[in-house]
Design a protein that fits this description.
Number of helices: 4
Strand content: 15-25%
Distance between the termini: 26 Å
Structural class: alpha+beta
Strand order of the largest sheet: 1-2-3
Number of strands: 3
Oligomer: single chain
Helix content: 25-40%
Shape: globular
Largest sheet: 3 strands, antiparallel
Length: about 110
């Protein structure tokens, strides 16, 4: 997640690791959004900071998603204790469900 200024440093570091590949938007029809729970619109918005829409960005290698970067979503906020961000239960559940999808997707990629 891009939490509190991490975006710029993350992009710099990921460019060092993958110098010939750019982060690209992951489309809403990608399996990561449908592997267990269905997210027809793609990455859910969990916590509002500045009103920007959420973006799922990734790096693909050999056709496989090897880096998943959530931008303007703040999935982690939905995973924290409910007292921390005061997000309603349905928002927190959405964050947990997306986390399950990420986990299930990774397990399905393991070979």
């Amino acid at each position: 997640d891009d939490n509190y200024g991490l975006d710029e440093s993350f992009r710099e570091e990921i460019a060092e690791i993958f110098p010939d590949t750019e982060l690209t938007e992951i489309p809403a029809d990608h399996p990561v959004f449908h592997v267990f729970f269905d997210f027809p619109e793609g990455l859910p918005k969990i916590h509002e900071h500045d009103g920007e829409p959420p973006q799922a960005l990734g790096i693909f290698h050999g056709g496989r998603l090897v880096v998943f970067y959530s931008y303007e979503s703040d999935l982690g906020d939905g995973w924290e204790d409910e007292d921390v961000h005061d997000d309603p239960p349905e928002i927190r559940e959405r964050a947990l469900r997306m986390g399950v999808n990420l986990f299930m997707f990774v397990l399905g990629q393991a070979t």
